[in-house]
């Protein structure tokens, strides 16, 4: 699945993702987490480099776009977050919670092709206490309203857990707030460190799922559906509010049959839904920037990105997006609302876009 240390290495169990090279911002070594990680990677013999800015990391190898992309996915940057204001995060939350960027997965359609470009290295912040202090300020500004933070806006953040413990720290932080709530979404399954935490129901963990055929065709270096559903069962058993995101919903020929099968499998794993179960749906969309990166890195991706078959819309960050035509989206919305309503009448559909 992911890039792991050599078989037999005792670190393989502890670190489902293992980088090939690591960069440190000099300031990261002023924090205990940064220092400890430097010692860990040095002991394991990884090439360690310093970078003056976590926004411009140079020296990632690769003769072709595809090689550079693959090398970046195995490059970890330990960084210090300096910006004290957080970006908005519609439709899932009020703000992004910046714990990390990037993801070791290689989904062909990934939205990070737009935001992170051709060398989407992985970045994890070590100054978590600063980040939570800034989150506290954002919460206070909106009181008495509750403020919701999304931990997966620009990352699948489970990869950082064995390194910085960022998600555990966030879950514990939000458990102690009266008006702050946290949520993140993942395709990964290394949830064990999160299970014993006292979360007080203030963190919602959602799993990104899709029809098995879609996972096979497009979601490389990610766990299969059954592993994701098993991980979901574990977090539900640990009392976390939970949910599923079906994204992207591909509306190609035969989509109803494909997604009917997905919900059959979901029901096999989850015949009795937990209280407060949520669903989110995002139909497939792409930007021209993502299309050009995907076509260069994965000319054989098999993604249908014909703009003639799509409607054009401006997105929240100024990128124009190509969506399915409105009639098709409405048809899909009716299908999924009906499916959830029949199988999980107590569950809430938070949005369908
Ligand atoms: S798991 Fe999510 S963030 Fe990671 S490559 Fe796939 S779509 Fe992108």
Descriptive labels:
about 350 residues; alpha/beta; 17 strands; about 35% helix; binds iron/sulfur cluster
Describe this structure in words.
The radius of gyration is 20 Å and the shape is globular. Helix 10 runs parallel beside helix 12. The chain has helices at residues 11-14, 32-43, 65-72, 112-115, 128-142, 161-164, 166-175, 212-218, 225-237, 255-269, 288-297, 326-343, and strands spanning 21-24, 48-50, 75-79, 88-89, 93-96, 100-101, 106-107, 122-125, 147-150, 180-186, 203-209, 219-220, 242-249, 278-283, 311-314, 320-323, 348-352. It starts with 10 loop residues before the first helix and ends with a strand. The strands form 4 sheets. An 8-stranded mixed β-sheet has the order 4-5-9-10-11-13-14-17. Helices cover 34% and strands 21% of the residues. By secondary structure, the chain is of the alpha/beta class. The chain has 12 helices and 17 strands. Iron/sulfur cluster binds at residues 103, 105-107, 110, 112, 156, 187, 222.
